[in-house]
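dumping this here before i forget
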Amino acid sequence: MGLFDIFTGTKRPESGVTPAPRSEVEAAILEINRPTAPFQIIPDDTGECDFIAEWKIVNAKWYEIFAKAGLQKTFRIKMKLDEKKNEVRAMDEEFTVEWRAGVPSLTLAVSGFKGQKTEISFGTAYAFTEELEFGQVYNYRFNSSELKTPLQEAVLARGWTWRGVAFGKL
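structure:
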């Protein structure tokens, strides 16, 4: 693994693993979705990439949790599959979150950095509960690796490279 790979977060499959067909990689990426997860992986219909993985921050079930957490930034991963090179090119995008009456509004963060990002947010709060007892009101932990690691593992297990894109386009 070279210095550039470390900088970009590029991960390569173990030697001897035969690359799977693109359709198997696509299916493996989508299989990571589950109804109880605070993230989703969806096909991109703009043509810019193949898949987008993002926190469910605008989902009504989840935005109250994110709002209580005071989340100010979030990110998503754009993925483009390159069948010729058997690699998934991935770029992180960061967004600033502004809460208006408890509803999130996302704005693309202006930054001079493109590439790979690791983000961890956590917290807890104690107050009087509905039963008028003092107790934990919420406890949360959002870690970007919860989203990124399963994607990388799915790609690598099928003999494809996870190539983090730091410069240029997907």
